[in-house]
Amino acid sequence: MAYTTLVPLALFGWISLGPFFFAVLSGRRALLATVLLGWMFLPVASYPISGLPDVTKASVIPMAAFLGTLLFHGGRLRSFRLGLLDLPILIYCVSPLFTSLANGLGLYDGLSAVFFQSITVGLLYLLGRIWITDLRALKEMLIWLFAAGAAYAPLILFESRMSPQLHHWVYGYHPQSFAMAWRFGGFRPWVFMVNGLVLSIFVVSSVLAGWAVWRGGLRRRILGVKVSLLLVAMLFTALVCRSLGATVLMGVAIVALEITRRRRVLAPLLILLAIPLLYAGARTIVRWDSGRVIEAARLISEDRADSLQFRVDHEMALTAKALERPLLGWGGWGRARIRDAEGRDVSITDARWVIILGAQGLVGLLAWFSAFILPAVSLLVHMRARTGSRVVWTMICGAVSIIALHLLDFCFNGTISVVFLLVSGAVLGVASRVRSIKRVRPRPAEIPGRVVLATR
Length: 456
Known about the structure:
Order of helices and strands: HHEEHHHHHHEEHEEHHHHHHHHEE
Number of strands: 8
Strand content: 5-15%
Shape: globular
Strand order of the largest sheet: 1-2
Structural class: mainly alpha
């Protein structure tokens, strides 16, 4: 595809604009601005560069934020120390090297794969880890995420009425086939996202953040509007996105968040965190065919059930191929995909867990789940015991529910959102300091609530 001049200007220019944010804003707000604005407005495009990750919005956003941190807050990077909870993401990023060597692809291929993995996944996870390390920072992140979704809502509502046109008007092309724009009797917006599914998950993440802001009383007004009214508008916007899966996940996540928040029982959120791991295990080890899930989907929509059946059939074939190299996987270059007798690729890969299993094997898959589940569980367990503040507990539950939402979505979809990586790094950042937290006398200036948490 021939891109317009504005596309490379926006993508490559963001690498310079990110450090500008760090020059004029506090480091934490600069990170949030770089990540959220980039995800919301950069074009869907890809520029291949030999030996480096393709230049896309998913790669320039972490590079811009890292460059800004390095130039203006290098001390944060130098003071970072690895902890036990950092090991899973480290293993996930490094394991492609051993996969390449095991498959005879060579050292250069392995190092290139490690570099790609580190840029697209590890870097933003690290930045969330070193910038969002206390409750004040976690509160600010949730408010920014909710405000970002609210600011995006008018564009979503516009496209739901007038059809997805904004990316075409600004950048000169549609990010995907326009045939995908019609769903459930109306237009399915995608604004500047790669497709409507990715947009829906972004909106639902914003709704969960807003729910925590509202129920925790973190802010009365955002963008000059009452938080409760904004939340109602965002719930409507989520429905307008016309994504059945995202809508169901939103309802489930809100219920789990609310039960955990009100009753201080961990089971609802822990179950949501465990389901993706159990699902991947059942599909991989037990070879479960998801028949009951498909039949349940058929009660809601015949089309959605057929789509799910199509994905499951391909997952079964790809899983069988992946288990031919179970430990470290097949590596890159599409070697885990299925080809016909003439060598043509006939694979359809949607689920993130299938992609990881095929490329990095069980080592990579277990590291992936551990990197996101263990910090969330650690934070929930320790904070329930150490805080009596409903405000603090609501914030924790809100952040963990966003992680659970994305992990559940990865059971069937594969796009990794920068929001997911940022929030996951933030949860790890706060969890890593939990052991040094104790009860102190309340200081209202720090954070609202009966109990204020401080570090030793």
